[in-house]
Amino acid sequence: MKQKKIPMRSCVVTKEKYPKKELIRVVKDNLGNVTVDVTGKANGRGAYLKKDLEVVKLARKTKVLDRHLQIEVKEEVYDELERVISNM
Predict the structure, then answer these.
(1) What is the pTM of this model?
(2) Is it the case that residue 71 has pLDDT exceeding 90?
């Protein structure tokens, strides 16, 4: 029996590859709105982060999401990321 392929994605902060379920996605839609995508299926340009509060703090400090999404990411998005990760 053939094994199902596990989709792998790279964390934009640590540059490590993880299974898609171990990461959280931040999406910029075509209107320029940046949101946290807990489903992983929202339309738009996405960037993946490891589900770790230290990674979110490092992303906030280095502004790596700004570069990947090509837009200024507001502090509310980082706050929402921390809230979602701490509730998991």
Answers:
(1) 0.90
(2) yes
Could you tell me if 1 and 8 are in contact, meaning their C-beta atoms sit under 8 angstroms apart? no
Residue 85, helix vs strand vs coil: helix
pLDDT at 1 over 80: no
Domains and CATH numbers, the chain: 8-86 (3.30.1230.10)
Closest CA to 59 of 19, 18, 21, 12: 12
Q: Which residues contact 29 (CB under 8 A, 6 or more apart)?
A: 35, 42, 43, 44
